[in-house]
Design goal:
It is a single chain. By secondary structure, the protein is mainly alpha-helical. The chain has three helices and no strands. Helix content is 54%, strand content 0%.
Length: 111
């Protein structure tokens, strides 16, 4: 068996076009293509007007919002408190670092 053949006995493709099957029909091998012509695109739907597309978009947005599981009032109050506490903590932390580093810079470089 030669180097040009794989285990199935067929000749290995030597170029990228051969590997994609573009030259298979010309070389006598069976065509690996789709075997039919591309369909004509004359039956495409007509373009819809901008107001109709906008209305459809808004209807789909409302439909998606109806699928959302909205939090209860108790959950919203809890989440709001958690966020406010976290933000307050972060503000205090940054303010503390700012004060400490400001004092350190003042001590190093003078008042």
């Amino acid at each position: 068996m030669s180097e040009e053949q794989d285990r199935s006995g067929r000749e290995r493709p030597s170029t990228a076009a051969d590997r994609r099957g573009r030259r298979a029909a010309a070389s006598g091998a069976s065509a690996a293509g789709k075997g039919r012509a591309t369909p004509v695109r004359d039956n495409r739907p007509t373009k819809v007007s901008v107001p109709n597309r906008l209305a459809r978009f808004l209807r789909e947005v409302v439909a998606e919002l109806r699928k959302v599981i909205w939090p209860t009032r108790k959950q919203m109050v809890t989440y709001t408190i958690v966020v406010l506490v976290f933000v307050s903590f972060m503000v205090a932390l940054v303010a503390g670092f700012d004060f400490v580093f400001g004092q350190a810079v003042g001590a190093v470089f003078g008042p």
